[in-house]
Amino acid sequence: MSGINSGSVRFLLADDHSLIRQGIVFLLEDMDWESEIFHASNLQQLMISIQEQPVDIAIIDAHFPDGNSITVVPEIKKMSPKTKILIFTGIEESAHSLKFLNAGADGFLSKLSEEEEIAEAIKKMYSHGSYISEVTQALLRNSISNPTLINPLLSLTERELQIAEMYAEGLGNLEIANRLDIKQNTVSTLKKRIFDKLKIENIVELIEVMKNHY
Q: Model pTM?
């Protein structure tokens, strides 16, 4: 692969698995770019790195032991608007890429991708400022007519959203029923409907969806 001639590119590799970061280092070395590489193994280190030195391209996992990186993407963009963010993760692209792009990420790439695609994504992040795979391009086209692909909470009715918020606050069926003056079995029915619409299976996942989109 040909190198670039516009000076050193500053990369931040943020992943809690050192083998993943090292794999990207080997790939960058094969690309023959003049680069400076910083590492972060958690969200705290990630934010400190962004604060301490300029970063051209940040390659970031979606999840860390100390949280979900979607919560810090807007903060990174606020602190360092020129930093391009590529989410590099094992989570399903078709289910998650749009919400990361909506939060401010400039690209989304699966860790299951072939080495050639990973290299191509990094090159496009540098040359064009973004990388949108064919999968995510299709999702973006579909989202024009189906905005729930970006924000699944839009699929809920006003009452369902109200109850989802109460579950996220830690209330149980009885407390919700008493607060809304409805029957417990009605709450249970609405809970199932909420879970079906959001394609989730438990309260932990509901809290995550609420945190990311509400």
A: 0.71
